[in-house]
Each structure stands twice: as structure tokens, then as C-alpha cells.
Design a protein that fits this description.
By secondary structure, the chain is α/β, with parallel strands linked by helices. The protein contains seven helices and seven strands.
């Protein structure tokens, strides 16, 4: 098992890619904290994995709120005794063309995607520096390179990559690795909702010829969280079938 007995927090993991990340980590032996704003679905997802025999719990958290992040880390330590892995997956989008984007939609996306990631990374850095080990995996997006109608989202995800590389420089000598994953076009409930024509256009841009599965992202996270990736640090890894080269 890649992460046997490691304690992992996965934000935004009630469903979708986040849930698959939590599931793969649990399968690979980790004790996993599912964390999300969606209280009912988060609790249901944790129960689903518990019924399979995995050590999983649910702790609700709005990562844009410092007090809730502090509570998330404190409760995890009380329950499991330590924190070895942090996966910053929580994120939202509020798309709109640059000239029409509202202040509220800009602030909301930045507060959750960027400030929220910073809040969690800062708490993890304090703990991991002290224990001399740790893995932080940030879920960015291929959109960090720029995407029409996503000024706020692209800026937030580019910021996550900047945070990743800075944290690597600060934490590497403390035994902590910090990497980012950029999922490409992943087959989720959300992407299944796009028109068939849009789906076909997206698939045509992928050399592999098909959309990825959420577990493809989860498997990459599990590897980066393991000792096998101890010398991989500060990297941005595309999980997109070659869509971004």
C-alpha cells in the first residue's frame, strides 16, 4: 500500500474528483478525512467508504474561513494524532467574460480557490515543519494557462501553482514535498452536463482520444503522497491525456 497508515485530509471531497482522491488514498492504506461544505453528501461519502472497511471520517469546513480551517486541523489531530498528507482539492468556478465579471464572482472564486488553499497550506506547513515530514498536493487546473470566460478561475489556479513552488522552496529541507496536479478534461457529473457538441470538441483536443476518469487524478495523488515520490518536489503534473503539452 502506497500510503499505509498515513493520515490525509482531502478538501472538497464530498463528490467528484475529490471523492475519488479520498477513495484511492483509503484503498492505499491511508486514514482519510473527507472535508467539504456539503455536509449531507460529505457524511454520506464518508459512510460509503466506512462500510467498505476504510478508516474515513467527515469534517465539514469552509476553507475560506480561517477559524474553520483551524478547527479542521485540530479535529484531525485529535482523532488521528497527526497529519501526513494534505490534498487541496476544494474549488469553485463562477465563469464570465472579463468585461462582465462581477466583483462578487471574482472575490468568491479567489477566496475559496486561492485564499482557501493558502489557509490550509499554512496550517499544514506549521505541523509538517515540526514533524519533519509531509506531503502537500494542490489540485490546480489546465485553465491556469488562461481560458476564455475564466479570468477569476484561471487567476486563482495560477496562484495555486505559485504557492506550490514557493512552499517547495521553503519546506523541502524540512522533509516536506509540495506538488501541483492539473487535471485535464475529466469525466464527471459536471462535464457530462455539457452539450454533446462541446464534449466532442474537448475530446478532439486530447491526443489520448478520451476523457480521463476521476480515479486517474486520485492515482497520481496517491503516488505523490507516497515515499516513492520523495524526490519529486515543486512540480506541476498534467493529468490530461496529453491535452496540455
Amino acid at each position: 500500500m502506497l500510503v499505509k497508515d498515513k493520515v490525509a485530509i482531502v478538501t472538497g471531497s464530498a463528490r467528484g474528483i475529490g471523492f475519488s482522491i479520498a477513495e484511492v488514498l483509503a484503498e492505499e492504506g491511508a486514514k482519510v478525512v473527507i472535508s467539504d461544505l456539503a455536509t449531507s453528501s460529505g457524511a454520506e461519502s464518508a459512510k460509503e467508504l466506512q462500510l467498505k472497511g476504510y478508516a474515513v471520517t467527515f469534517i465539514p469546513c469552509d476553507i475560506s474561513k480561517r477559524d474553520q480551517v483551524n478547527a479542521l486541523f485540530a479535529q484531525t489531530q485529535v482523532q488521528f494524532g497527526r497529519i501526513d498528507v494534505l490534498v487541496n482539492n476544494a474549488g469553485i468556478n463562477r465563469d464570465g467574460m472579463l468585461h462582465k465579471l462581477s466583483d462578487d464572482d471574482w472575490d468568491l472564486v479567489i477566496d475559496i480557490n486561492l485564499k482557501g488553499t493558502f489557509n490550509c497550506m499554512q496550517e499544514a506547513a506549521k505541523l509538517m515543519r515540526e514533524q519533519g515530514s509531509g506531503r502537500i498536493v494542490n489540485i490546480s487546473s489546465a485553465s491556469w494557462l488562461g481560458n476564455v470566460g475564466q479570468a477569476n478561475y484561471a487567476a486563482s489556479k495560477a496562484g495555486v501553482i505559485g504557492l506550490t513552488k514557493t512552499a517547495c522552496r521553503e519546506l523541502a529541507r524540512k522533509g516536506v514535498t509540495v506538488n501541483a496536479i492539473c487535471p485535464g478534461f475529466i469525466d464527471t457529473v459536471m462535464t457530462r452536463g455539457v452539450p454533446e457538441k462541446v464534449w466532442d470538441i474537448m475530446i478532439s483536443k486530447i491526443p489520448a482520444g478520451f476523457a480521463g476518469a476521476p480515479r486517474d487524478v486520485g492515482q497520481c495523488v496517491a503516488f505523490l503522497a507516497s515515499e516513492r515520490a520523495r524526490y519529486i518536489n515543486g512540480e506541476v503534473i498534467n493529468v490530461g491525456g496529453g491535452m496540455v503539452l
